[in-house]
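ok so for the tutorial part 2 we go from a plain amino acid sequence to predicted C-alpha coordinates. step 1 is just haveing the sequence, like this:
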Amino acid sequence: MKWKFAIVSAMMAAACAQVTVQVGGRPVGTRGVLNLNPGAGMLESCVDNAASSRVDCTPSVNSAVLVTHDTEHSNENYCNSATQNTSYTCRLPYRPLASYLPGMTFLLNVDATCAPSCSLNIDNLGLVNIKRIDGATDPGGALVAGQPQWIFYDGKVFRLMGGAATGAGPAPTDSRRDVIARRVIGGMEIMPYAASITLDVTAGDLHKTLTAPAAGNSTINAGTAGLPGQHMWIIVANDTVSGKIITFGANFRSSGPLAGVPGKAATIQFVSDGTAWYETGRTGNL
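step 2 — the prediction. this is what the C-alpha coordinates look like for a chain of 286 residues:
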Protein backbone atom coordinates (compact mmCIF):
# COMPACT_ATOMS: atom_id res chain seq x y z
CA MET A 1 0.00 0.00 0.00
CA LYS A 2 2.85 2.33 0.79
CA TRP A 3 4.39 1.85 -2.60
CA LYS A 4 1.13 2.79 -4.28
CA PHE A 5 1.02 5.98 -2.25
CA ALA A 6 4.60 6.82 -3.23
CA ILE A 7 3.84 6.36 -6.91
CA VAL A 8 0.78 8.59 -6.72
CA SER A 9 2.75 11.26 -4.84
CA ALA A 10 5.50 11.18 -7.44
CA MET A 11 2.99 11.53 -10.26
CA MET A 12 1.32 14.47 -8.52
CA ALA A 13 4.70 16.18 -7.96
CA ALA A 14 5.62 15.72 -11.62
CA ALA A 15 2.26 17.11 -12.68
CA CYS A 16 2.70 20.12 -10.42
CA ALA A 17 6.17 20.75 -11.86
CA GLN A 18 4.80 21.18 -15.37
CA VAL A 19 4.42 24.80 -16.52
CA THR A 20 2.25 25.95 -19.39
CA VAL A 21 3.90 28.77 -21.31
CA GLN A 22 1.85 31.23 -23.33
CA VAL A 23 2.89 34.03 -25.70
CA GLY A 24 0.27 36.63 -26.45
CA GLY A 25 -2.36 34.47 -24.73
CA ARG A 26 -1.66 31.46 -26.92
CA PRO A 27 -0.12 28.30 -25.43
CA VAL A 28 3.23 27.29 -26.88
CA GLY A 29 3.87 24.24 -24.70
CA THR A 30 3.82 22.64 -21.25
CA ARG A 31 7.16 21.57 -19.90
CA GLY A 32 9.11 21.31 -16.71
CA VAL A 33 11.84 23.65 -17.97
CA LEU A 34 11.53 27.18 -19.42
CA ASN A 35 14.55 28.19 -21.53
CA LEU A 36 15.11 31.86 -22.46
CA ASN A 37 17.05 32.28 -25.70
CA PRO A 38 18.54 35.70 -26.52
CA GLY A 39 17.07 37.16 -29.71
CA ALA A 40 18.39 39.62 -32.29
CA GLY A 41 19.53 42.56 -30.22
CA MET A 42 18.13 41.17 -26.95
CA LEU A 43 20.13 39.53 -24.15
CA GLU A 44 18.95 37.47 -21.15
CA SER A 45 20.69 37.23 -17.78
CA CYS A 46 19.26 34.90 -15.08
CA VAL A 47 20.36 34.17 -11.49
CA ASP A 48 19.08 31.67 -8.92
CA ASN A 49 17.47 33.68 -6.10
CA ALA A 50 17.55 31.02 -3.38
CA ALA A 51 16.40 33.40 -0.66
CA SER A 52 13.14 34.05 -2.51
CA SER A 53 12.86 30.52 -3.92
CA ARG A 54 12.87 31.73 -7.50
CA VAL A 55 15.00 32.43 -10.58
CA ASP A 56 15.30 36.11 -11.53
CA CYS A 57 15.78 36.95 -15.23
CA THR A 58 16.66 40.41 -16.52
CA PRO A 59 16.51 41.25 -20.25
CA SER A 60 18.92 43.79 -21.76
CA VAL A 61 19.74 45.33 -25.14
CA ASN A 62 22.76 44.53 -27.28
CA SER A 63 23.87 48.07 -28.19
CA ALA A 64 25.96 46.67 -31.07
CA VAL A 65 22.66 45.73 -32.78
CA LEU A 66 20.00 48.07 -31.35
CA VAL A 67 20.77 51.76 -31.11
CA THR A 68 20.01 53.38 -27.76
CA HIS A 69 18.05 56.59 -27.33
CA ASP A 70 21.17 58.55 -26.32
CA THR A 71 23.13 57.25 -29.30
CA GLU A 72 20.30 58.03 -31.71
CA HIS A 73 20.11 61.60 -30.49
CA SER A 74 23.88 62.07 -30.32
CA ASN A 75 25.44 61.71 -33.77
CA GLU A 76 23.84 58.59 -35.27
CA ASN A 77 22.91 60.38 -38.52
CA TYR A 78 25.95 62.67 -38.82
CA CYS A 79 27.59 62.43 -42.26
CA ASN A 80 30.87 64.34 -42.54
CA SER A 81 32.59 64.44 -45.94
CA ALA A 82 36.27 65.39 -46.15
CA THR A 83 36.90 64.54 -49.81
CA GLN A 84 37.68 68.17 -50.78
CA ASN A 85 35.50 67.70 -53.87
CA THR A 86 31.78 67.44 -54.67
CA SER A 87 31.73 63.62 -54.87
CA TYR A 88 31.00 63.50 -51.16
CA THR A 89 31.78 60.39 -49.12
CA CYS A 90 31.16 59.62 -45.47
CA ARG A 91 30.78 56.80 -42.96
CA LEU A 92 28.14 56.91 -40.26
CA PRO A 93 29.77 57.03 -36.81
CA TYR A 94 27.65 54.35 -35.11
CA ARG A 95 27.51 51.45 -37.57
CA PRO A 96 27.50 51.05 -41.39
CA LEU A 97 24.27 51.75 -43.23
CA ALA A 98 22.82 48.58 -44.75
CA SER A 99 20.92 50.22 -47.61
CA TYR A 100 19.32 53.47 -48.74
CA LEU A 101 15.63 53.53 -47.83
CA PRO A 102 13.07 56.25 -48.68
CA GLY A 103 12.57 58.69 -45.81
CA MET A 104 16.05 58.32 -44.31
CA THR A 105 17.45 61.63 -43.02
CA PHE A 106 21.06 62.63 -42.45
CA LEU A 107 22.91 65.72 -41.22
CA LEU A 108 25.42 66.39 -44.00
CA ASN A 109 28.55 68.49 -43.51
CA VAL A 110 30.90 68.95 -46.49
CA ASP A 111 34.27 70.60 -47.03
CA ALA A 112 33.64 71.69 -50.64
CA THR A 113 30.75 73.86 -51.81
CA CYS A 114 28.35 72.13 -54.22
CA ALA A 115 28.62 74.25 -57.37
CA PRO A 116 26.74 73.49 -59.42
CA SER A 117 26.06 69.72 -58.89
CA CYS A 118 27.19 67.07 -56.42
CA SER A 119 26.57 63.54 -55.14
CA LEU A 120 26.90 61.56 -51.91
CA ASN A 121 28.12 58.05 -51.08
CA ILE A 122 27.31 56.78 -47.57
CA ASP A 123 29.15 53.68 -46.30
CA ASN A 124 30.11 52.62 -49.85
CA LEU A 125 26.47 52.10 -50.90
CA GLY A 126 27.06 54.11 -54.09
CA LEU A 127 26.92 57.72 -55.24
CA VAL A 128 23.47 59.33 -55.22
CA ASN A 129 22.79 62.77 -56.68
CA ILE A 130 21.94 65.64 -54.34
CA LYS A 131 19.12 67.97 -55.40
CA ARG A 132 17.21 70.88 -53.95
CA ILE A 133 13.93 70.31 -52.09
CA ASP A 134 12.05 69.84 -55.40
CA GLY A 135 14.10 66.72 -56.14
CA ALA A 136 15.04 67.93 -59.64
CA THR A 137 17.15 71.11 -59.40
CA ASP A 138 20.90 70.93 -58.74
CA PRO A 139 22.00 72.70 -55.52
CA GLY A 140 23.98 75.32 -57.48
CA GLY A 141 25.73 76.63 -54.36
CA ALA A 142 22.90 76.02 -51.87
CA LEU A 143 25.09 73.44 -50.09
CA VAL A 144 28.03 75.41 -48.70
CA ALA A 145 31.25 74.05 -47.24
CA GLY A 146 31.20 74.08 -43.45
CA GLN A 147 27.44 74.76 -43.21
CA PRO A 148 25.71 71.47 -42.25
CA GLN A 149 22.29 70.75 -43.77
CA TRP A 150 19.65 68.10 -43.26
CA ILE A 151 18.99 65.90 -46.30
CA PHE A 152 16.54 63.07 -46.91
CA TYR A 153 16.44 60.20 -49.39
CA ASP A 154 13.30 60.05 -51.53
CA GLY A 155 14.08 56.69 -53.12
CA LYS A 156 16.03 58.19 -56.03
CA VAL A 157 18.02 61.24 -54.86
CA PHE A 158 19.00 63.08 -51.69
CA ARG A 159 17.02 66.30 -51.21
CA LEU A 160 18.22 69.35 -49.31
CA MET A 161 15.74 70.17 -46.57
CA GLY A 162 16.71 73.80 -46.08
CA GLY A 163 18.91 76.69 -47.15
CA ALA A 164 22.43 77.24 -45.88
CA ALA A 165 22.19 81.00 -45.54
CA THR A 166 22.27 82.47 -42.06
CA GLY A 167 19.92 85.09 -40.66
CA ALA A 168 16.38 85.40 -39.40
CA GLY A 169 14.81 84.16 -42.62
CA PRO A 170 14.85 84.42 -46.41
CA ALA A 171 14.77 87.84 -48.00
CA PRO A 172 11.47 88.79 -49.66
CA THR A 173 11.19 88.61 -53.45
CA ASP A 174 9.09 90.43 -56.03
CA SER A 175 6.98 88.89 -58.82
CA ARG A 176 10.14 88.19 -60.84
CA ARG A 177 11.72 86.43 -57.84
CA ASP A 178 14.29 89.23 -57.49
CA VAL A 179 15.47 89.66 -53.91
CA ILE A 180 14.17 92.76 -52.14
CA ALA A 181 16.42 93.98 -49.35
CA ARG A 182 17.41 97.22 -47.69
CA ARG A 183 21.06 96.50 -48.40
CA VAL A 184 23.48 93.60 -48.70
CA ILE A 185 27.06 94.03 -47.51
CA GLY A 186 29.51 91.42 -48.73
CA GLY A 187 32.39 90.31 -46.57
CA MET A 188 36.01 91.31 -47.27
CA GLU A 189 38.97 88.94 -47.29
CA ILE A 190 42.45 90.26 -46.51
CA MET A 191 44.97 88.25 -48.53
CA PRO A 192 48.57 88.17 -47.25
CA TYR A 193 50.90 89.21 -50.03
CA ALA A 194 53.14 86.49 -51.51
CA ALA A 195 54.58 85.38 -54.83
CA SER A 196 51.48 83.17 -55.25
CA ILE A 197 48.14 84.03 -53.65
CA THR A 198 45.11 81.72 -53.55
CA LEU A 199 41.87 83.70 -53.39
CA ASP A 200 39.01 82.04 -51.47
CA VAL A 201 35.90 82.87 -53.51
CA THR A 202 33.65 81.81 -50.59
CA ALA A 203 35.27 84.30 -48.16
CA GLY A 204 33.27 87.30 -49.45
CA ASP A 205 32.80 89.55 -52.48
CA LEU A 206 35.75 91.85 -51.79
CA HIS A 207 39.37 90.73 -51.60
CA LYS A 208 42.29 93.01 -50.73
CA THR A 209 46.06 92.65 -50.61
CA LEU A 210 48.83 95.10 -49.70
CA THR A 211 52.10 94.50 -51.53
CA ALA A 212 55.27 94.09 -49.47
CA PRO A 213 58.19 96.49 -50.18
CA ALA A 214 60.83 93.75 -50.14
CA ALA A 215 58.76 91.28 -52.16
CA GLY A 216 58.55 90.87 -55.91
CA ASN A 217 55.65 90.42 -58.30
CA SER A 218 52.70 88.12 -57.56
CA THR A 219 50.13 85.86 -59.18
CA ILE A 220 46.59 85.66 -57.80
CA ASN A 221 44.73 82.36 -58.36
CA ALA A 222 41.03 81.81 -57.64
CA GLY A 223 40.31 78.71 -55.54
CA THR A 224 37.30 77.82 -57.72
CA ALA A 225 35.56 79.16 -60.82
CA GLY A 226 32.70 80.50 -58.69
CA LEU A 227 28.95 80.32 -59.27
CA PRO A 228 27.15 81.59 -62.39
CA GLY A 229 26.34 85.27 -61.84
CA GLN A 230 28.69 85.70 -58.88
CA HIS A 231 30.62 88.99 -58.75
CA MET A 232 33.80 89.92 -56.91
CA TRP A 233 36.18 92.83 -56.57
CA ILE A 234 39.91 92.83 -55.85
CA ILE A 235 41.80 95.79 -54.34
CA VAL A 236 45.57 95.84 -54.77
CA ALA A 237 47.26 98.49 -52.62
CA ASN A 238 50.82 99.00 -53.84
CA ASP A 239 53.59 99.82 -51.37
CA THR A 240 55.58 103.05 -51.74
CA VAL A 241 58.87 101.37 -52.70
CA SER A 242 58.22 99.87 -56.15
CA GLY A 243 55.35 99.10 -58.50
CA LYS A 244 54.45 95.41 -58.43
CA ILE A 245 53.10 93.42 -61.39
CA ILE A 246 50.03 91.36 -60.47
CA THR A 247 49.12 88.48 -62.78
CA PHE A 248 45.75 86.71 -62.63
CA GLY A 249 46.19 82.95 -62.94
CA ALA A 250 44.00 79.91 -62.30
CA ASN A 251 40.26 80.30 -62.95
CA PHE A 252 40.67 83.91 -64.17
CA ARG A 253 40.09 85.39 -67.62
CA SER A 254 41.62 88.87 -67.36
CA SER A 255 42.68 91.51 -69.85
CA GLY A 256 46.29 91.12 -68.71
CA PRO A 257 48.63 91.80 -65.78
CA LEU A 258 47.93 94.71 -63.46
CA ALA A 259 50.88 97.14 -63.35
CA GLY A 260 51.12 98.75 -59.94
CA VAL A 261 52.22 102.32 -59.16
CA PRO A 262 54.16 103.00 -55.93
CA GLY A 263 51.88 104.33 -53.23
CA LYS A 264 48.75 103.88 -55.37
CA ALA A 265 45.90 101.35 -55.32
CA ALA A 266 43.89 99.71 -58.07
CA THR A 267 40.57 97.89 -58.24
CA ILE A 268 39.55 95.15 -60.64
CA GLN A 269 36.11 93.52 -61.00
CA PHE A 270 35.20 90.01 -62.17
CA VAL A 271 32.00 88.07 -62.87
CA SER A 272 31.66 84.28 -63.03
CA ASP A 273 29.76 82.09 -65.48
CA GLY A 274 30.48 79.00 -63.40
CA THR A 275 33.52 78.00 -65.47
CA ALA A 276 35.82 81.03 -64.97
CA TRP A 277 36.04 84.59 -63.62
CA TYR A 278 35.83 87.19 -66.41
CA GLU A 279 37.19 90.69 -65.94
CA THR A 280 34.58 93.41 -66.37
CA GLY A 281 36.63 96.46 -65.47
CA ARG A 282 39.60 97.93 -63.64
CA THR A 283 40.62 101.31 -62.23
CA GLY A 284 44.19 102.31 -61.34
CA ASN A 285 46.13 105.16 -59.73
CA LEU A 286 43.68 105.48 -56.84
